[in-house]
Design brief:
Length: 313
């Protein structure tokens, strides 16, 4: 018997980077899922459509190592057999700012425990998944793993229980992929240099990011997408000031605004990756067609969407 777990990926709506330094951020799960199938095997092995071939723990490539780390950790802590084969299938390219690594770690933890007849509590999934995220990013805030586990829209601050943001109906975003990969770790270090150079300015910008995230939460609940868009564009300008953006992302934000969006910003670590936009209601398809004409891939993210789920097959 095999077990399957599927975790959503995510988009950070406001507050990335500053969240690593203690600010509030707002993030949403998106329904582009990563699927991990776990089956009993002779030894711990991984297959991933992003990195073809069968991967073994001893000579694993760096991108796969965090998966082994989470698998080992959970098997040791829960007394599960580590003779497991994991097959990872993704609908999101790695390095696109949509939390594919966090989603994978969450689905790995959920699928291994389900294979052993255990359904972990969400906070346990978060804890195991974080061991892999730390291996990748050095010092992740935990926002990605939290939102990929719990789903929905979360207001998040390090060290505080994430606050689910509930609202009636759905809200629509369009996520645009720049097509450029980047390293989250490098981006975090780059932005952190700004903190060392200008500590007071950085701390004031962090406070403003917290305020923007609180206001964005209110506007999402109220369904006031026009004001939400303005908050996103403001947040992009601040992220750009601290070095998280690049010319391609700035141009994508400008393009989204010129095509009538209420707002747009980079999402995730920046320096490549994706842009999250707030299209005018009813204009989503037209906006995406205009992007396609210019060679950009995009998809609609309807939120809220559910968190990780697992089952036996
Ligand atoms: O690179 P991504 O999409 O996983 O985004 C990371 C978000 C950061 O705030 C830059 C880092 C973090 O751990 O919060």
């Amino acid at each position: 018997m095999n077990s399957i777990a599927e975790a959503p990926t995510k988009a950070i709506i406001t507050g990335e980077h500053f969240v690593v330094h203690g600010a509030w951020a707002l993030a949403t799960a998106i329904d582009r899922r990563i699927r991990v199938e776990a089956s009993k095997s002779d030894e711990l092995t991984v297959e991933s459509d992003a990195y073809p071939g069968r991967h073994y723990e001893r000579k694993s490539r760096p991108e796969i190592r965090p998966i082994f780390k989470v698998a080992r950790k959970i098997c040791e802590a829960e007394d599960f057999s580590p003779r497991v084969h994991l097959r990872v299938t993704s609908t999101v390219p790695p390095g696109s700012g949509l939390g594919s690594s966090a989603s994978t770690m969450v689905a790995v933890a959920a699928s291994i425990s389900r294979l052993n007849g255990v359904q972990l509590a969400p906070r346990e999934v978060v804890e195991y998944a974080m061991t892999g995220e730390k291996e990748i990013h050095g010092r992740p805030s935990g926002i990605d793993v939290a939102v990929c586990t719990y789903g929905g829209v979360l207001l998040f601050k390090m060290g505080v229980r994430p606050k689910p943001v509930r609202f009636p109906g759905t809200r629509k975003f369009v996520v645009v992929q720049s097509g450029q990969k980047r390293s989250t770790k490098r981006q975090i270090n780059k932005v952190s240099e700004m903190k060392t150079k200008f500590p007071y300015l950085f701390s004031a910008l962090g406070e403003s990011a917290s305020m923007v995230s609180q206001l964005a939460r209110e506007r999402i609940v109220a369904g006031d997408m026009r004001s939400l868009g303005k908050l996103l564009t403001y947040n992009h300008a601040v992220l750009s000031t601290v070095g998280a953006s690049d010319r391609a992302l700035d141009e994508l934000v400008d393009l989204a605004l010129s095509l009538g969006c209420y707002g747009a910003k980079l999402t995730g670590a920046g320096g490549g990756g994706s842009v999250v936009t707030v299209p005018q209601s009813g204009q989503e398809a037209q906006f995406m067609a205009a992007l396609e004409e210019r060679g950009f891939r995009s998809f609609e993210a309807v939120v809220p969407t559910s968190g990780v789920r697992s089952w036996l097959q």
